[in-house]
Amino acid sequence: MAVIELDHVSKYFGKFAAVKDLSMNVEKGEFYGFIGPNGAGKSTTINMILHFIKNSEGRIRLFGENMPSANVDVKKRIGYVPSDVRFYPQLHVEDLIRYTLDFHRMHADRKELTYYCDLFDVDLRKKFGDLSLGNKKKVAVICAMIMRPDLLILDEPTNGLDPLMHARLFQLMKEKQQQGVTVFLSSHNLKEVQDYCSRVAFIKAGHLIGVEDLTTINKNVKIITLKGDRLPVEQMETIGAECIRRSDCEARFTYEKGLPELFRTLSELAPKLDDVTVDNRDLEEQFMSMYENQEATR
Amino acid sequence: MTLFRLECRTHLKTLLIWIVVVALLTFGLLSLFPSMKSMGLQQIDLNAMPKDMLKAFNLSDMAALATVKGYFGYEYQYVMLATGIFAATLGTNALSREETEGTISYLYAQPISRLSIVTAKMIANVLLYTLYWLVSMAVAFLACLIFKESGASVSGLFRSFTQLTFTGWIMGLTFMSVGFLLSSLMKSNKPATSLSLAIVFLTFILGVVGKLNDKFQSLIYFSPVDTALPSAVFKNGIEWKYVVTDLIVLVVAALLTCVIYRRKDLKV
């Protein structure tokens, strides 16, 4: 069952289309990445999903229920970590968590709360307004987790977190996903998306430009980078490599065929070159390639 | 209920400050009454002053100033304006503050409808204003009892204060509901205080114009302060035509607030 369904969703601010004809499904138990550059429409999409703003066109369904009519019911099942955490500064962390539970008509499980506080090193007695950016983020994560959501929506959750807390957060989310929680992660950090997400949607200028299955993205495609004064582009193309980027002294290729032929060719070419590298195609490469293709087709 | 508690807690400090300031002001003003009276307050000749000006300042009957009711009625109209500003500020800040401070991203991520947000905030702010107003009136009544002239009727004073408590409550709620309406339209609470001042003073000026010129008498209906002018309430009792007008404004503004806020794109 799809937990998040967007069906031809658009959002206009005046004549400007912040999101245009966006359709995607996030399935139950998925760790779904949502990436795009600044101003691409990621936060606008999340704001529409959570009904902070209304979609101008299309239909949004959460847990199979139409939004916004099922707004209150579905939000009982959603934990949300905003990119800019601005909770009530005058409240102590413990009060904030208690209010969150009260909104959900739940009682604090002291053991669970202690576990999260220990995990993220959060002091319940501090005032929220006195916390650093990273600590505010941790409190937002605890508030989202403590009500045991079925869907976690995380908008740039690692901003301000140190590497240790970053790792703990993702470890926790991975555990939650394994327990059946759906995770929707909007991020600029391609590494974390690549490491944890099973699928990723790319958005640019309000348009969905592709959805990739990350379980297969790295396996077949190699990225070859050649550096030197005289770049053997034609020779590479004869073995099936596709030049994806080229400058005066550097060329990048994608290659999906057999490795023996690739390495034979590279060993012949290597003496004429300054440097040769072969990598698995990562998300960044995929991201850049999708964006460039989209630019080219405009 | 959770938001109601949160809203009450958020405003508790402001409420206490307003109560203390207004109580001190009321006590201070009334403590001057015995000495003013002994200085011959009622013998001041106001005929030299333009009649319109006296009307505008609700000072047409100087003899009444020699009684604690008359003195209080004149002095307290300025506290009434401040009360209107307090009530309007509660309203104008209520919804827009969440967007300015970004707390709406926490609040609306909870399982709560927009209508519940508006109603919880309205109920909380009505309670806060009611508390403020009841304490203010109790302090004023107590001060009047302490400083009243000899022979002044306590029961008469109590009846007048009961009427003033009611009309002042309606006045404040009217300003608050207009404030709520503006708050539902605003994306930021930055202009909230200046808007509150503008609402109260503009409507007060409309009332003054209505009193100065018979042709514009109907403008008084647009002035909630005139519903609860202490000098008028003490003299004429409750003027129901103004109370009903205020109630209509209050209900319409509250309903419009709900409709607008439900359709609004929240600034996150």
Can you characterise this structure?
The complex is a heterodimer of chains A (298) and B (268). By secondary structure, chain A is an alpha/beta fold. Chain A is built from eleven helices and 14 strands. In chain A, the strands form three sheets. Chain A has a six-stranded mixed β-sheet with strand order 6-7-8-3-9-10, with helices on both faces. In chain A, strands 2-1-4-5 form a four-stranded antiparallel β-sheet, covered by helices on one side. In chain A, strands 12-13-11-14 form a four-stranded antiparallel β-sheet. In chain A, a hairpin with a 2-residue loop joins strand 1 and strand 2. The model of chain A has no long low-confidence stretch (mean pLDDT 89). Chain B has 268 residues and is mainly alpha-helical. In chain B, helix 6 packs antiparallel against helix 11. The longest helix of chain B is centred in the middle third of the chain and has 34 residues. The chains are: A alpha/beta (298), B mainly alpha (268). Chains A and B meet through helix 2 and helix 3 of A and helix 1 and helix 5 of B.
Count of helical regions of chain A: 11
- Separation of the first and last Cα atoms of chain A: 35 Å
Sequence stretches where pLDDT stays below 50 over 5 or more residues of chain B: none
Fraction in beta strands of chain B: under 5%
Q: Class of the largest domain in chain A, according to the CATH hierarchy?
A: Alpha Beta
Instruction: Give the ordered list of helices and strands of chain A.
Output: EEEHEEHEHHHEHEHEEHEHEEHEH
Give the CA-based shape of chain B: elongated
CATH homology-level superfamily of the largest domain in chain A:
P-loop containing nucleotide triphosphate hydrolases
Number of strands of chain A: 14
Question: What's the short version?
Answer:
Chain A has 298 residues and is α/β, with parallel strands linked by helices. Helices cover 37% and strands 30% of the residues of chain A. Chain A has 2 domains: 2-215, Rossmann fold (3-Layer(aba) Sandwich), CATH 3.40.50; 222-280, Alpha-Beta Plaits (2-Layer Sandwich).
